[in-house]
Amino acid sequence: MINRINHITLSVKDIIESFKFYKDILGLKPVMKSKISAYFTAENTWIALTKGECKTNKSDYSHIAFNIDSKNFNTLKNRIKDYGAKEWQENKTEGDSFYFLDPSGNKLEIHSTSLEDRIKYGKQHWGKDVEWFA
Q1: All domains of the chain, ordered by start, with CATH?
Q2: I need a surface site. Which of 29, 39, 86, 115 has the fewest CB within 10 A?
Q3: pLDDT tens digits for range 69-82
Q4: 133: helix, coil or strand?
Q5: Phi and psi of 121, rounded to 5°?
Q6: For the segment 47-93, what is each residue's pLDDT rounded down to a tens digit?
Q7: Given its phi and psi angles, is residue 95 left (phi above 0), alpha (psi -120 to 50 degrees) or beta?
Q8: E strand or H helix at 74, and its extent?
Q9: How many Cβ atoms are within 10 Å of 105's Cβ, its own excluded?
């Protein structure tokens, strides 16, 4: 049975540029870097970057959301904007979220609320057609 996420792998166009972005802009902890891949950690989550073709679809909502404390949200959001990362969607959820593209066009988000906050909000605002298990 699946008990957790083992790792997340993203295809990137340029390992050097992407390594700098994920390390210097997002602040992930580097584990390794080679000509074709790089590994990072975000606490207990392993994130792998692999040089390859990047296929992004503007209408696809698939993305990776990184958690950040609300007190650090604006600092990181401004650092990402100052880097020149493009915003791919405006925030439409409760709490602070910023949706942006990495240098290869992968869809990312920084988010400062928890699943518990989302459940609480949802139970108050999403109506009776939702089946809750938590």
Answers
A1: 7-52+63-125 (3.10.180.10)
A2: 115
A3: 999 999 999 999 99
A4: coil
A5: -60, -45
A6: 999 998 877 777 788 899 999 999 999 999 999 999 999 999 999 88
A7: left
A8: helix 70-83
A9: 15
